[in-house]
Amino acid sequence: MADVDKTADVVVVGAGCSGLRAARDLAAAGLDVVVLEARDRVGGRVFTEVTEGGAVIDQGGQWIGPTQGHLQALADEFDVDTFPTYVAGANVEVRDGQRFEFTGLVPTSDPGAAADTVAALLELDLLAQEVSPTSPWTHPDAAALDARTLADWTMEAVDSPGARNLVSTAVLAVFGCEPVELSLLYALAYAHSGGSLSSLIRTTGGAQERRFAGGAQQLAIRLAEPLGDRVVLDAPVVAIADDSDSVIVTARRARPDGSRTDWTVRCARVVVAMPPAVQSRIAFDPPLPGARDQLAQHAPMGSVTKVHAVYDRPFWREDGLSGQLVADRGALRAVFDDSPEDGAHGVLLGFIAGHADRALEAVGPDGRRAVALDELARAFGPRAASPVEFVEQRWSAEPFTRGGPVACFGPGLLTSAGPALRAPVGRVHWAGTETAEAWTGYIDGALSSGTRAACEVIAAEGRGRP
Amino acid sequence: MADVDKTADVVVVGAGCSGLRAARDLAAAGLDVVVLEARDRVGGRVFTEVTEGGAVIDQGGQWIGPTQGHLQALADEFDVDTFPTYVAGANVEVRDGQRFEFTGLVPTSDPGAAADTVAALLELDLLAQEVSPTSPWTHPDAAALDARTLADWTMEAVDSPGARNLVSTAVLAVFGCEPVELSLLYALAYAHSGGSLSSLIRTTGGAQERRFAGGAQQLAIRLAEPLGDRVVLDAPVVAIADDSDSVIVTARRARPDGSRTDWTVRCARVVVAMPPAVQSRIAFDPPLPGARDQLAQHAPMGSVTKVHAVYDRPFWREDGLSGQLVADRGALRAVFDDSPEDGAHGVLLGFIAGHADRALEAVGPDGRRAVALDELARAFGPRAASPVEFVEQRWSAEPFTRGGPVACFGPGLLTSAGPALRAPVGRVHWAGTETAEAWTGYIDGALSSGTRAACEVIAAEGRGRP
C-alpha cells in the first residue's frame, strides 16, 4: 500500500455545517477525525462577510424558523442571538411593470390570481403531507408523481396565469430553479421536510422568520473551533479510494510555491458532506455505482446570486414598506429587508435565480448591478438606485458549490435511484443538507444530516459515545 | 512557473472519435499535439469487444446512415466495409404483455395508436425543421419551446396513450432518457441535426442503416495509429490551469507500484473532447464561468445498458422475423438483429435505458440477464432464453462517460446558457459529439466537432495547413 501523509479513524470531506456537525459527533464518540475543506474558510453555503463600510452580510444561508430544532439548539449553545426578519408595513408587488402594495403572504393586485395562488399553495401543502420526506418513493402514486414536473402540475391545477407566475416566483426563491426543472415528487417531499410549502415561503412563522445577530457563519466557525487543526482548509479532495479494508482520501494541498501536491489520509471510513453535483467530481475508486452517479447528474444545483444593496438607513420603512418585493418577471423576483436589527443602516437583499441567473452572467457584475438597482428603484423609489455599497455573491461561479441554494432533482430519479441518496457505498457515507430527513436544503437539515452520517459511522465502527 | 513533464502546442483531452479527429487535424496543420486519454483504450463511446466465443460486439456506437459524410469518408479512407443492418421479415411488438408482428417503422396492433404515432412523428419533424441545430436559441419561440419538456408536448399533441408510449420508446432508444428529461427545444434541435426525428429512429434510410464489418472501434484505432505515442492512455486529466499565456494540463498517470502521480503538460491551447457531464469533473483554474458549469450540470448523460445475446445462429430469421422488437414497457424497449453479415452466428442487441436502467442496477448482472432473456423469449420464442453467450455494457458505471449514448439537456438551459456550449473559455476549446453542429450525439457529429475545434485552435494560433 502506498505511503500516506496521515491516518485517522474518519475523514469528513467538507467543512460546511453538515461536515462540521458530523465531525463534532464523531470526535465526541472518541473517534479521531480529520475534516478536509476545499475553501480557505469553513461554513460551505453559510458565509458571512463584512463590507468595507462595515455591513454584516450573509452571502449564503441566513435564516432560522420554527421547528428548526437542530439549528436553534446550536444557536442556544453558542449564545448566538436571533432577531426577527423585518416585516412591518406593506410589501410591494410588481406585475406587468406596474407597482402595487399588499400585506400578507400573497400579492393581491389581481384578486383572481391571489385566490388561485392560495388555493394552489393549499393543494400543494395537502399533497405534500402524503409524501414521506425520507422515502418519497414509497408513495402509492410515486411513479406518476415522479414522472411529472412541478410545472406540469401547475399547468393542470392552476388556472390563472398570474397564479402560475406566483408559484414560479416562490419556486425560484426556494429552490433557485424553475418549476419545470423539479420532479413533482421531489418538490412535495422537500416541502414536507420543512412542514409545508407555505412554511418554506413564509417569513413570520416560516423558514425566513429570524436571523442571526452577527451573521450565520459564526455557528460554523464555533463548531470548528474545538476541532482545531483537525479541520484542514484549502485542501480540496480529489480522490477517494476504498480498498474495503480502509480508505485513502487524497486532497490537493498548496505548496509554498503556489503549486499543489497530493496529501493523503488513510482512514476507516469517510463522510462526504457536499451536494451531489460536486460529490460526483471526486474520483472514486472503485467508481460509484451507475445509479448513484446518475442520481448526482440529475441533481443540478439551483442557480442563484444573492445581491445586497446597502443604504445609510432603511428608508423604505419611513414609507411604510417592509422591504419585501414580489415580482412577476425580471432579475429580482424576491427581495427582503436585510438590515441589522438596530436599523443603523439599511440593507435590501435580492435573489437572482434560475434562468435569469444564468442569462445574466454575460452582462457582468456592472450589468447585474444596473439591472438590480433599476428594479429596486421601481419598487422602492429613486433612493434605492443609489446605495452606499452593492455586493453580489454568485454561487454558480463558486467552484466548490456550483450553484445554490440546493440541489434540484429532476423527474424520474427518486423512483429509480432515490434510495442511493443516503445509502453508504462501501466505507463511504453521505451527509449534506440534500440528504437530510427534515428541513432538506436548510442549515437545520445540514446539521441533522451530519449527525445521521456520524451515527452510521459510529455504529459501523462499533464505538458508542463514551 | 512550476516544472512540467512535457510541452506541446495543443493538448487534446479524450481519445474518443472527436478528440482523435481534432488531434489529426491539428497535427496535419503542423502543431505538436498530445492526446490524454483516461482509459486504457481509444474510442470513448465507440468500443468493440470480441467475446470468448469469437463474436464481435459493439458495446457503444455502431451504426452509420445516410448524410453521415464525415464518418463515411473515414470508413472509405481506412477501407472499412459497411453492411446493412438486417431488417428482412416482420418486427415484433409487445404491448400490454401481448405479442404482435408488424412491418415498417411503427407498430400496428393498435391502429389508432399507429396513426397517432405517425402523426406525432410528422409534427415533430416539421417543428424540428424550424429549429436551428446550431443555435436553437434564435428561434422566435425559443423561450417557450425551451420552457417545456418533450413529455409536455406529447401530452398536449398526442391523444392516444399508446402513441405516447411509442414516442417514449423512441426517445429512450435515441437519447437513453425519458421524454420528461428533455427540453423540447433541445430535442427538436437534436432531431434536426440528424435530419429529422424519423431519420434518427429508422434503420433503412436512417441512423441505424448500416454497420461496420469488424466493429466501429477500428476507426478510432486507425485514427490513433499515426499519432503514435502522442496518444497517452491511462492518463485521466484532473486539472486544467489557464494562466492566459499558456495552459498546464495535469493527468494522473500510474506508477509501477499501482499508485498514481501527477503528470503535467504545458501547452498553448487545450481541446476538451468529452461530454459536458464529465468535463465538469475536471478542476479548472480559473473556475469555469457559472453559466458554463450550470449548462454541464443540466446535461446529464442518458442512462443506457447495451445487452448482447449470442446464439449459434440467427434462428428468428427462420421464423420470418427481423430481430427487431418494440415494447411498451419492461427493460428492453428496443431490440435489433446484431448478427455478423454472414450470419455465422446470431446476435440480438437490446437497450435498457432511462428509468429502467437505473432501477435495474440493484438486481445485478444476473438479474438483468434473467429479465432480458425473459423478454427476448417472449418476443422471439423459447430459443431466445438460452444464448450461447450474454454480455452487457453498463455505460452509467463507466467512470469516464457515466452514461450514454448522449447528454440530455433539460429545459431552460439552451436559452439561458446555450451559447456557452461551444464558446472557448480562455485557451480551452470544446469538442465532443454534444457540441456537434450536425448529427449531434452520433459518431459523425463527434468527428465534425473535432474538426471544428481544431479549426478554432489553428485560427487562434495563426497557423494554417502546411
Could you walk me through the main structural features you see in this protein, from its secondary elements to its overall organization?
The structure is a homodimer of 466-residue chains. Chain A has a 7-stranded mixed beta sheet, sandwiched between helices. In chain A, strands 1-14-13-12-16 form a 5-stranded mixed beta sheet, with no helix packed on it. The first copy, chain A, has a 5-stranded parallel beta sheet with strand order 11-3-2-15-22, with helices on one face. Helices cover 33% and strands 23% of the residues of chain A. Chain A is built from 16 helices and 22 strands. Among the domains of chain A are: 6-46 and 216-288 and 425-461, FAD/NAD(P)-binding domain; 47-105 and 203-214 and 302-400, Alpha-Beta Complex (Polyamine Oxidase, Chain A, domain 2). In chain A, strand 19 (332-337) and strand 20 (346-353) form a beta hairpin. Chain A has helices spanning 17-28, 69-77, 111-129, 142-146, 150-157, 161-175, 184-193, 197-201, 217-224, 276-279, 290-297, 315-318, 354-359, 364-380, 413-417, 443-461, and strands spanning 6-7, 10-13, 33-36, 48-50, 56-58, 63-64, 82-84, 90-95, 98-102, 210-212, 231-232, 237-242, 247-254, 260-267, 269-273, 283-285, 304-311, 321-327, 332-337, 346-353, 389-394, 428-431. Chain A is an alpha/beta fold. At the A-B interface, helix 5, helix 11, helix 13 and helix 15 of A face helix 5, helix 11, helix 13 and helix 15 of B.
